[in-house]
């Protein structure tokens, strides 16, 4: 018998925006620094998957809070959600389609200076 890993729960970008805007959860962007700087969701917390895989702790603003992981398309955020759940961060939700879907839904994207950003 093969062990099966459950996939993380997934929500749409619009659902994630609502849950993070009202403070019910933290939007955790797991893309790399250059991607984050080019454009991210306002209020998101940055924690690159590469750093998490290397054993880095979650940023203080994300500790002990419900988390919604996002990347560019959804692959890395699923991996981060599984990793963080295994580490005891609770059930981490993944955002379907990542930042590509976020931007396509017309949700705000800012760059590292707070100006209109783009998805890299």
Q: CATH homologous superfamily? A: Rhodanese-like domain
Q: What is the helix fraction of residues, given as a range?
A: 25-40%
Biggest β-sheet, characterized?
Answer: 5 strands, parallel
Which sequence of SSEs, written as H and E, runs from N to C?
EHEHEHEHEH
Rg over alpha carbons: 13 Å
N→C terminal distance: 41 Å
Count the DSSP helices. Answer: 5
Based on secondary structure, the structural category is: alpha/beta
What shape does the CA trace take? Answer: globular
* Global mean pLDDT: 93
**CATH class value:** Alpha Beta
CATH topology: Oxidized Rhodanese, domain 1
Quickly count the domains.
1
- Please indicate the percent range of residues in DSSP E strands (runs of 2 or more): 5-15%
């Amino acid at each position: 018998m093969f062990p099966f890993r459950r996939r993380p729960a997934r929500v749409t970008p619009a659902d994630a925006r609502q849950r993070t805007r009202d403070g019910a959860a933290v939007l955790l962007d797991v893309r790399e620094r250059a991607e984050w700087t080019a454009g991210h969701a306002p209020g998101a917390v940055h924690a690159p998957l590469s750093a998490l895989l290397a054993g880095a702790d979650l940023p203080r603003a994300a500790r002990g809070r419900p988390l919604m992981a996002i990347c560019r398309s959804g692959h890395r955020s699923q991996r981060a959600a599984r990793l963080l759940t295994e580490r005891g961060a609770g059930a981490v939700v993944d955002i379907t389609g990542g930042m590509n879907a976020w931007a396509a839904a017309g949700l705000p994207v800012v760059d590292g200076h707070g100006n209109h950003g783009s998805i890299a």
